[in-house]
Amino acid sequence: MEQKKKNNDNNGPKMNMPKFNMNWIYFVAILTLILLYMTNTGDSVVAVAQTHTESTYSDFKAFVERGYADKIVVNKTQNKLKMYVKAEHIRDVFKQGHKQTGTAPFVDVEIGSVDQVEQFVEKMKEEGKFKGKLSYENKSGGSFISDIFISLLPILFIIVIWMLIFRRMGGGGGLGGGMFSVGKSKAKMYEKGGELGITFRDVAGQAGAKQEMQEIVDFLKNPQKYTDLGGKIPKGALLVGPPGTGKTLLAKAVAGEAGVPFFSMSGSDFVEMFVGVGASRVRDLFEQAKQKAPCIIFIDEIDAVGRARSKNPAMGGNDERENTLNALLTEMDGFGTNSGIITLAATNRADMLDSALLRAGRFDRQIHVDLPDLNERKEVFLVHLKPLKLADDVDVDFLARQTPGFSGADIANVCNEAALIAARFNRPQVGRQDFLDAVDRIIGGLEKKTKVMTEQEKRSIAIHEAGHATISWFTEFANPLVKVSIVPRGQALGAAWYLPEERVLQTKEAMLDEMCSLLGGRAAEELFIGHVSTGAMNDLERTTKQAYGMVAYAGMSDKLPNLCYYNNTEYQFQRPYSEATAKLMDDEVLKMVGEQYDRAKRILTEHAEGHAQLAQLLVDREVIFAEDVEKIFGKRPWTSRSEELLEAQMRADAERMAEERAKQLELEAKEKEGKA
Questions:
Q1: Whole-number pLDDT of residue 356
Q2: Over the chain, what is the mean pLDDT?
Q3: Which residues pair with 665 in a beta bridge?
């Protein structure tokens, strides 16, 4: 009998029961409370089913006087009343039919006092405008069950938020999974770096950086070539450079070229609200990498966890970031071995990194990814111009010269802005002027066509900008002028555009000429207006910084020659010079700036007539080019290669401006004829 029972149990149908989950209990509890709240009383059901609206006491009196009220219920505890509307007047009050509002919609009204309402209702009854019933209720709010529900809401809210936090930390693996997977690495892994679809062909410029990264790729592809000579694979490479220069792009290109597993992670992914999580994630990341070796680990923005450790730790404190850094140092080059793992990292704040992280054996190479020079900018432009429909007048050489100091990201932004500008004006192709407008937009900001200025302010700005243009025209080492504008852009009311020569070394004479040109605007205001304004604040800031740099760092002053007081990290708490030297620096800076200001006033006085013509031309046309300045002052005494390249472009711009002005005048004339 027992044997038969066992056989029946074994042969019987097996039921696949779902696994138990705590989320079901939470869901059932919340659903039960909601159902209790909904089904507690008949009044609650009616309240949920019927439409109601809030109104003022004045509107309530008007509704009653018109005979809209069916009955009135006053709540003495809350100082409120409900006016139920007659069926035939529902549309007059709610602008909807009874099918939408229900059969007993009401109006909620806050009242000042119950006595006032009673007097008004009695009056309306005497006049025959209200024949319904006035009743009272003393409810303080909802029912007992609803009060419990409302009191439990904060607790339920905290439980839900806590569940979401653990889900977030665990990558959506449920409550228990989140708690136990919080220390797991969040790195994205690519089995083959080629999945990213980026190679060195996609990285324009940066020839030196690409060469060093290419060696890492060659070692991964053909390690025997180096090991036969006794070489070892580099353990790490740190990419350092300003934002937007292509550090992350270079790392992606290395992954695409090497074809080995690639782990990508941001420095901020190690930081978490729980103690020990960052160090646990570091260990888990390298544990995964060991299983996939040879492979590459890339940590973007490593300064988030790699900052220099404090020499004075907080008493009794436990710095989570320092623990994470210690774990990273140990994994990169500790007692254990990590053969076959190459660590790449990128940062634009290498000066803040811990010295132990930068030593050889952890990051064997520091690869500097600098801003592109002229030829490299041309290569970057050629990459980003491929998807654009270009007009015949687009000159890549000219665009590269027009964007000194631009990073690769800035150049990509220029190309995109140019395409947007061309599309805005319904042009079939992207032309040279679109690129120039895009450069102006990025450097100076959005053109403010609606900014209101008085004629006096407009003339003051024109005199200021004409001062810059005049000084730059008559100083030998000043940058060649491109155009001058008094159209407000961003925070600037006017601007002068130059085409700077990219010099490797800056001479004292060139820096003094630039300083004189910067002070030309303030000098013009003092000479030709009679008072100065705040419009020169940016010029004065740049002049002061440059003067202090020449005196304190470059050793270019008369009384402090050949001395550099550069404030490096060794002098964090005190200056590396005495108070007497600081006073001497201030005197030298004041003297240097004063000399260049007097020089600017002398040049402007000599060419006062030409400056006045230039200012008037700016007032009339708002934008002038180098060719217009040449017509007033004659050919510049010192010509440069950049200016020669600009001559043809200046003529074309002047012709374009004249054509646009003629079209505008023609349209205005047609509008006047139409009105007549």
A1: 86
A2: 77
A3: none
Q: What is the pLDDT of residues 22-36, one digit of tens each?
A: 566 666 666 666 665
CA dist list (Å): 470 to 145, 521, 543, 610: 83, 9, 18, 8
Please state the separation of Cα 578 from the chain's center in Å.
41
How do 341-347 and 262-266 pair as beta strands?
unpaired
Q: Are 57 and 109 in contact (CB under 8 A)?
A: yes
**What is the longest distance spanned by two Cα atoms in the chain?**
126
* Amino acid, single-letter form, for residue 310: S
Give the relative orientation of helices 408-424 and 432-444 as an angle to the nearest 10 degrees. 120
Q: What is the DSSP letter of 490?
A: T
Of 511 and 139, which is predicted with more confidence? Answer: 511
Q: If you average pLDDT over each of 149-163, 217-231, 530-544, which comes out highest?
A: 530-544
Whole-number Å distance between alpha carbons of 451 and 658: 24
List active site positions.
465
Instruction: Report the pLDDT value the prediction gives residue 138, as an integer from 0 to 100.
Output: 66
For residue 558, give the 3-state DSSP assignment. Answer: coil
Residue 184 has which token pair?
A: 């797991």
* CA-CA-CA-CA torsion sign (502, 508, 512, 515): positive
Tokens coding 527: 């000479």
Token pair belonging to 185: 């690495």
Tokens of 333: 């080059």
CA–CA gap between residue 136 and residue 429 (Å, rounded): 76
Residue 169 pLDDT grade (very low, low, confident, very high; cuts 50, 70, 90): low
pLDDT score of 648: 54
CA distances, 300 to each of 266, 269, 306 (Å): 5, 10, 11
Write out the H or E segment, with its range, that includes residue 308: none
Arithmetic mean of pLDDT, 275-287: 80
Q: Phi, psi (5° rounding) for residue 27?
A: -65, -45
- DSSP assignment of 344-391: EEEES-GGGB-HHHHSTTTS-EEEE-PPP-HHHHHHHHHHHTTTS-B-
Bridge partners (DSSP) of residue 72 are 83, 134
The secondary structure of the chain in percent helix, strand, coil, rounded to multiples of 5, reads 55, 10, 30
pLDDT confidence band for 420 (50 / 70 / 90): very high
What's the confidence (pLDDT) of residue 577? 82
Helices (H), 240-349: 247-258, 277-292, 303-306, 320-333
Let me know the angle formed at the C-alpha of 266 by 260 and 272, rounded to the nearest 5 degrees.
130
Torsion of CA 225, 230, 233, 237, to 10 degrees: -110
CA-based R_g, the chain, Å: 38
HSE-CB at 446 with a 13 A cutoff on CA atoms is 5
Which DSSP letter does residue 447 get?
B
Query: Is residue 170 classed as helix, strand or coil in its secondary structure?
Result: coil
Query: How many angstroms separate the CA atoms of 366 and 352, rounded?
Result: 14
